[in-house]
Design brief:
This protein has about 400 residues and is α+β, with helices and mostly antiparallel strands. It has 14 helices and 10 strands. Helix 1 packs parallel to helix 9 and helix 7 packs across helix 9. The longest helix has about 40 residues.
């Protein structure tokens, strides 16, 4: 079978090894939830000439859903393409495929794929299309489980064969339960009291029917995440989702077995060896959730910092002195007393003492050098990845000639 989940995991491990040595000890699933902002899907309304008022209203609904000031922002960017002045060949080139049969039509791509691959989905712009894009019951549950701190949620796509689905799901459940127990027993103690909320190693399974009309957008995103998944339409599939809705890979049919499940669980709960999201395997789902607010609430609930009472030292209290100098005493001070300070006394404070060296200057300089070195290493790694990617694309184009 042309399944390549093991290759994906191995590539991820190799990438982690190549990343800077300053990587943290936080598990992959926790670091992804706290730091990895979801990538944007690209949606384009393809039309010829003016669009109707109803279609403008539907576009406004999508824009509101993608507004990051909302309650549950959608990781979507929306634009329009008027093809009235374009030739059919030009449109086909932009879409990397055939023109839609009915216009206006809505098309959307995986993050960073627009102009490089055909759309993930393309169809008529309707109210049901907008609703399916923005949210679905399984995606809502998925986001909630991840926000609650689960290590990963496994989306189990049923094949339609009851016996196959039952056997695969039972195996997946047993292995995840065993992995959870082992992780809880072997979990290292927290690094320090401010390292964050306590880690909760837990997995769950969400079943997904291929014929559920409310989940067709989610199915499209999952089944197109790897190029050959459509060849196994009669097999059950399991997709581990972690962080802020990132799909790692797919286990298919006979590939849903103990060693593969344990390998993925170990990767997700292991230390985050590479903090650069783009250098980790996986692809983000289109999901509506306010991840930043959820993480902040998570921290504020579990770890409250002590109240800040002040940053400057308090001034000494002024007490009343009953033996203070009286007006009569002040008369005893003569003009001779005012000249008591000699020239030698004025030299007690030297000019150099007026500008003391700020403490920690050398330490700040060393820190600055450390930051520059780390940044340089990261830029070199990113440049290497871009160069290899460009070379791979070049080889692929040559192979097609």
């Amino acid at each position: 079978m042309k399944r390549h989940y093991t290759t994906i995991i191995l590539m991820g491990l190799l990438v982690l090894a190549a990343c800077p040595a300053s990587a943290c000890l936080v598990p992959v699933f926790r670091y992804a939830m706290e730091r990895w902002t979801p990538d944007y899907y690209e949606a384009v309304l393809i039309h010829r000439g003016q669009v109707s008022e109803n279609q403008k209203g539907l576009l406004d609904q999508l824009r509101q859903a993608a507004d990051w000031n909302g309650q549950a922002p959608l990781n979507l960017r929306l634009s329009e393409l008027d093809i009235a002045a374009l030739t059919d060949d030009k449109v086909k080139s932009l879409l990397r495929g055939e023109l839609p049969e009915t216009l206006p039509a809505l098309a959307f791509w995986y993050p960073g794929r627009r102009g490089w691959t055909p759309p993930v989905w393309m169809g008529e712009l309707t109210s049901s299309t907008v609703a399916a894009l923005v949210q679905s019951p399984v995606r809502r549950q998925l986001a909630q489980h991840l926000i609650e701190g689960q290590s990963a949620v496994w989306v189990f796509v049923e094949s339609g064969d009851a016996d196959k689905d039952k056997a695969a799901r039972q195996l997946l459940g047993r292995e995840l339960e065993a992995a959870t127990q082992e992780l809880k027993e072997m979990a290292p103690p927290p690094i320090d009291e401010f390292a964050g909320p306590e880690l909760s190693y837990e997995f769950s399974i969400l079943a997904l029917s291929r014929v559920d009309p409310k989940e067709q957008m989610l199915l499209v995103m999952l089944l197109n995440s790897e190029p050959d998944l459509h060849e196994y339409a009669d097999e059950p599939m399991a997709f581990p989702v972690f962080g802020r809705g990132r799909v790692l890979c797919a286990l298919v049919g006979a590939g849903i077995r103990a060693d593969n499940i344990r390998e993925i669980a170990a990767f997700l709960t292991g230390p985050c060896g590479c903090q650069i999201k783009a250098m980790n395997p996986g692809i983000d789902l289109l999901m509506a959730a306010n991840w930043d607010a959820a993480v902040m609430e998570f921290y504020e609930t579990d770890y409250l910092l002590p109240e800040l009472t002040g940053v400057m030292p308090e001034a000494p209290a002024i007490t009343e002195d009953t033996n203070a100098v009286t007006p009569a005493d002040t008369k005893a001070v003569t003009a001779a007393d005012t000249n008591a300070v000699t020239t030698a006394d004025t030299n007690l404070v030297k000019p150099a003492d007026a500008n003391p060296v700020k403490p920690g200057a050398q330490e700040q300089k060393l820190r600055g050098l450390g930051v520059m070195a780390t940044t340089t290493v990261m830029l070199v790694v990113i440049g290497l990845v871009v160069a290899l990617g460009t070379l791979a694309v070049s080889w692929r184009r040559r192979a097609q000639l």
